[in-house]
């Protein structure tokens, strides 16, 4: 039974989510002497999206040495592109090496977050009846947390097995089965090559093809692991080189430039090299600019499509029935199992749970036409609330952890500044937030993401609340300093 507010202790920082973002925030706060932290995690284990994505072939499309925190590097990555199991090992190492589990309350799904202006306190309530109060709150639950199913008539009528990439059924035996994979995005191109090794018949249902680059994955030599372990600066140098190489890709992914045309020619060459059938080449070649949707990495997807037991279906799905899938040309495809590689419901117009700020304002309703924040991290009217991977912080060309790390450092500076100044709260000014977003949207209008294709980056009205229109170095630079003049500071006795 939940205790009343007067009986509930007031903590310094509340964090929602125990994935990369939440654990990284707790680690850095701890290093700065802030130890009064509570992390609420809805699951029974840490890991976030990497805990949930355990489908065969799951791996990162960013090099291992770059997909880690600079302040807690792993010298022992076994491959150039780590699989999900190895990434989870790294996350567990973070939690254990830095003693972060003591902050975590597992199996606590947050159902609401509200701010008391008089006390300057955030209160989180969970479905399990827990109440947690804190002076600062961090929403670190991540955008890739809730599986998304397409709106297809008859979805619940299918009598066979239904599996989602983010909720994989490891007890189901795919050997000899007739399997459909719906979706050819990031998870789809990793799942298909693995299922092609097991299924007797594999049909891949594609709505829109994506641009795919070759993935140069290889096992790391033992001498390199030894070197990184003994000389950390060597690993830091490699990480810096990988970062700069990915930064240069921004000119070919974010904007329509000669570099973009060169990358598109490379992607077309990848298709020509791996796909021998001219009609299949045409089917897997996108009609939109490279970068408009997420650019994928794979060297085994196209070969898998050409195996004798595999077929690409590009006719639109009309309905799902008890036996399988009916497509627009009137054919019923019968299956034993449907695999949905359809990603996540990314919140672009709402919040994962109700968030109430000053004077009862509710963030979800304010974001109905598109989410907006200041530097992706603060929202006017919600003092002392911080977000990781908030609006317009999505990377299109570099490691997500570079952006997350910049946000973590901003949060740590904000929390320590509040402590040193002795003020109750900081609330970004409405006019500052408005100017920031007007500038962002002007920049976004010139990017490939806003060039006309439909993607999960955009709302139904075409508003881009997801991506950051620039280099990772630009994003990190704006996060280096907490400009107090951009905020309304609230003392314990008022303004």
The CATH class label of the largest domain is Alpha Beta
CATH topology of the largest domain: FAD/NAD(P)-binding domain
Supply the helix-strand structural class: alpha/beta
CATH H-tier superfamily of the largest domain: FAD/NAD(P)-binding domain
Biggest β-sheet description: 8 strands, mixed
CATH-defined architecture of the largest domain: 3-Layer(bba) Sandwich
The radius of gyration over CA amounts to 23 Å
Number of helices, counting only DSSP H or I runs of 4 residues or more: 14
How confident overall, as mean pLDDT?
93
Protein name: 4-hydroxyacetophenone monooxygenase
Keywords: FAD, Flavoprotein, Monooxygenase, Oxidoreductase
GO molecular function: flavin adenine dinucleotide binding; N,N-dimethylaniline monooxygenase activity; NADP binding
Organism: Halovibrio salipaludis
Question: Could you characterize the architecture of this molecule?
Answer:
This protein is of the alpha/beta class and 495 residues long. The chain has two domains: 5-146 and 347-490, FAD/NAD(P)-binding domain; 155-211 and 255-340, FAD/NAD(P)-binding domain (3-Layer(bba) Sandwich), CATH 3.50.50. Helices cover 29% and strands 17% of the residues. It has helices at residues 20-31, 49-52, 84-97, 188-195, 222-230, 232-248, 250-253, 258-274, 278-284, 301-305, 363-366, 400-421, 430-444, 472-478; strands at 10-16, 37-40, 104-105, 110-116, 121-126, 131-139, 161-164, 178-182, 201-205, 212-213, 296-297, 310-313, 317-320, 324-327, 332-334, 337-340, 355-356, 385-387, 425-428, 487-490. The strands form five sheets. Strands 1, 2, 3, 4, 5, 6, 17 and 18 form an eight-stranded mixed beta sheet that branches. A hairpin with a 4-residue loop joins strand 5 and strand 6 (131-139). The radius of gyration is 23 Å and the shape is globular. It starts with 9 loop residues before the first strand and ends in a 5-residue tail after the last strand. The model has no long low-confidence stretch (mean pLDDT 93). One of its GO terms (molecular function) is N,N-dimethylaniline monooxygenase activity. Keywords: FAD, Flavoprotein, Monooxygenase, Oxidoreductase. Pfam families: FMO-like. This is 4-hydroxyacetophenone monooxygenase.
């Amino acid at each position: 039974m939940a205790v009343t507010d007067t009986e509930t202790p007031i903590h310094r920082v509340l964090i929602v989510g125990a994935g990369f973002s939440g654990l990284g925030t707790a680690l850095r706060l701890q290093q700065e002497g802030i130890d009064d932290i509570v992390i609420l995690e809805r699951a029974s284990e840490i890991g976030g999206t990497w805990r949930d994505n355990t489908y065969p072939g799951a791996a990162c499309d960013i090099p291992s040495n770059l997909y880690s925190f600079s302040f807690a590097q792993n010298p022992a990555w076994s491959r150039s592109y780590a699989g999900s199991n190895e990434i989870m090992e790294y996350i567990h190492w973070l939690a254990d090496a830095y003693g972060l589990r003591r902050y975590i309350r597992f199996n606590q799904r947050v159902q609401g977050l509200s701010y008391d202006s008089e006390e300057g306190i955030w209160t989180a309530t969970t479905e399990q009846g827990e109440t947690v109060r804190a002076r600062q709150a961090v929403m670190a639950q991540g955008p890739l947390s809730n599986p998304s199913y397409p709106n297809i008539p008859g979805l619940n009528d299918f009598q066979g097995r239904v599996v989602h990439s983010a909720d994989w059924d490891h007890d189901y035996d795919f050997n000899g089965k007739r399997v459909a994979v719906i979706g050819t995005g990031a998870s789809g191109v990793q799942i298909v090559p693995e299922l092609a090794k097991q299924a007797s018949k594999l049909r891949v249902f594609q709505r829109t093809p994506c641009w795919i680059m070759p993935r140069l994955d290889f096992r790391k030599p033992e001498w390199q692991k030894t070197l990184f372990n003994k000389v950390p600066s060597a690993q830091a140098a490699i990480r810096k080189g990988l970062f700069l190489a990915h930064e240069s890709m921004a000119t070919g992914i974010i904007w329509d430039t000669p570099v973009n045309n060169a990358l598109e020619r490379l992607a077309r060459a990848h298709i020509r090299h791996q796909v021998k059938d001219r009609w299949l080449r045409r089917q897997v070649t996108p009609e939109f600019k490279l970068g408009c949707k997420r650019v994928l990495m794979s060297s085994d997807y196209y070969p898998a499509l050409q195996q004798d037991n595999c077929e690409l279906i590009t006719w639109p799905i009309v309905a799902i029935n008890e036996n399988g899938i009916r497509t627009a040309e009137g054919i019923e495809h019968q299956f034993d199992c449907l695999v949905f590689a359809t990603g996540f419901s990314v919140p672009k117009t709402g919040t994962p749970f109700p968030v109430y700020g000053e004077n009862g304002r509710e963030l979800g309703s304010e974001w109905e036409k598109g989410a907006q924040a200041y530097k992706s991290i603060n929202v006017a009217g919600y003092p002392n609330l911080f977000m990781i991977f908030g609006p317009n912080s999505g990377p299109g060309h570099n490691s997500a952890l570079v952006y997350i790390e910049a946000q973590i450092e901003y949060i740590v500076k904000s929390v320590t500044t509040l402590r040193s100044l002795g003020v109750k709260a900081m609330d970004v000014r409405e006019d500052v937030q408005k100017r920031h977003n007007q500038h962002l949207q002007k920049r976004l209008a010139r990017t490939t993401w806003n060039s006309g294709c439909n993607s999960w980056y955009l709302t139904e009205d075409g508003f881009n609340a997801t991506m950051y229109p620039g280099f990772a170095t630009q994003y990190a630079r704006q996060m280096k300093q907490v400009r107090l003049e951009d905020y309304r500071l609230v003392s314990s006795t008022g303004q």
